[in-house]
């Protein structure tokens, strides 16, 4: 459920960026497209940062700090390391790492200066200035993603044990519960999503970003399908395909668009918010009208997820360089996932008992 990463970038900052873009571009003469994403720079500090990064990429140092990733000579060949590592691909990574180190250290230097002048933190490349720990970009978000992952695993495993070891099975060893397979897929997609969320927060490059976004969109799309199937009690295979097919086609197209055409944060946010809101509404309305014995859990989760969304909207800078709104949002999803899987287990038990009664 890293689906709200996008609110870190776009909306208001996207508009601001669109206005500033020509100015920024003209003021620096830089053709690096990444700099076009910069959203919260004031014009006065932008050239300073650019100059710092440029200088650092040449010398490999910011002030007294020098970085080993920047040790390549001007003719494009690596100075150190064995010959088999001196390939262009390796060098590209090295150059990339050098740039990343430079940006990070220029940002730290700039933030220190600003703090002394009594200014509040600003965003760099659309992201808050986080302090790295052992090279991990956002250690708190990584730890919370890992906790979320383990919570999903725990939930899925307890669901599995309940269905196959505690509740009675049909004569062909299938479960009575009609949504078993769907929740298995849900469990796998959410564990996959939290795994890539942890990777993305530890190292933010294009590949990890795309993997994280794609898994989050896949999870969100599938949960939407699942909410409709469960709330409307769709048990017939053909009807399930009718609901799922157009949504799967839409989500697949969107993921392909993001990965191979354009990583459009604004569009992605709209798609995710739309799917998320519809999903929450389906669950909320169902929770309102159903006689399900565990409907209060549904209410709690819908309310909790809704409130947690506010954390992403009221984005604030990381406290001490570590805990920002997005990290807190990842913290809130831990108890919510626990309650959610508890509802899923209740639902499995509830449906199984109903079906057993019918048979008798
Ligand atoms: Zn995240």
Automatic annotation (TrEMBL):
GO terms for molecular function: hydrolase activity, acting on ester bonds. Keywords: Golgi apparatus, GPI-anchor biosynthesis, Membrane, Signal, Transmembrane, Transmembrane helix. It holds the Pfam family Per1. Belongs to the PGAP3 family. It is found in: Golgi apparatus membrane. Involved in the lipid remodeling steps of GPI-anchor maturation. The chain crosses the membrane at residues 140-164, 176-199, 211-229, 241-261, 267-289, 296-314, 326-344. This is Post-GPI attachment to proteins factor 3. Coiled coil: none annotated. It is a multi-pass membrane protein. GO terms for cellular component: endoplasmic reticulum membrane; Golgi membrane. Its main location: Golgi. GO terms for biological process: GPI anchor biosynthetic process. Residues 1-26 form the signal peptide. It comes from Quercus lobata (Valley oak). It comes from the Eukaryota. InterPro entries: Per1-like.
């Amino acid at each position: 459920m890293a689906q709200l990463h996008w609110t870190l970038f776009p909306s208001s900052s996207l508009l601001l960026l669109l206005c500033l873009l020509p100015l920024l571009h003209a003021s620096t003469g830089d053709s690096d497209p990444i700099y076009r994403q910069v959203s919260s720079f004031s014009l006065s500090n932008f050239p300073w940062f650019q100059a710092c990064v440029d200088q650092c990429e040449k010398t490999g140092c910011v002030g007294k700090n020098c970085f080993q990733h920047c040790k390549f000579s001007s003719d494009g060949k690596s100075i150190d390391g064995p010959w088999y590592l001196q390939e262009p691909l390796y060098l590209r990574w090295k150059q990339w790492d050098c740039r990343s180190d430079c940006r990070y250290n220029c940002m730290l230097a700039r933030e220190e200066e600003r703090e002394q002048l009594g200014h509040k933190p600003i965003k760099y490349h659309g992201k808050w200035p986080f302090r790295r720990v052992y090279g991990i970009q956002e250690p708190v978000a990584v730890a919370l993603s890992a906790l979320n992952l383990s919570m999903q695993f725990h939930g899925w495993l307890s669901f599995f044990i309940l269905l196959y070891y505690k509740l009675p099975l049909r004569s062909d060893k299938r479960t009575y519960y009609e949504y078993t397979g769907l929740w298995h897929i849900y469990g796998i997609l959410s564990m996959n999503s939290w795994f890539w969320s942890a990777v993305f927060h530890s190292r933010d490059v294009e590949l990890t970003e795309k993997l994280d976004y794609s898994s989050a969109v896949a999870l969100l799309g599938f949960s939407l399908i699942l909410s409709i199937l469960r709330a409307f009690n769709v048990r017939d295979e053909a009807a399930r395909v009718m609901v799922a097919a157009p949504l799967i086609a839409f989500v697949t197209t969107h993921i392909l668009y993001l990965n191979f055409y354009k990583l459009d944060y604004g569009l992605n946010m709209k798609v995710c918010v739309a799917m998320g809101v519809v999903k929450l509404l389906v669950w909320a309305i169902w929770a309102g009208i159903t006689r399900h014995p565990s409907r209060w859990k549904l209410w709690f989760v819908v309310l909790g997820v809704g409130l947690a969304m506010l954390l992403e909207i009221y984005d604030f800078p990381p406290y001490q360089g570590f805990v920002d709104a997005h990290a807190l949002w990842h913290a809130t999803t831990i108890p919510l996932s626990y309650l959610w899987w508890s509802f899923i287990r209740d639902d499995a038990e509830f449906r199984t008992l109903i079906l057993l009664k019918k048979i008798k």
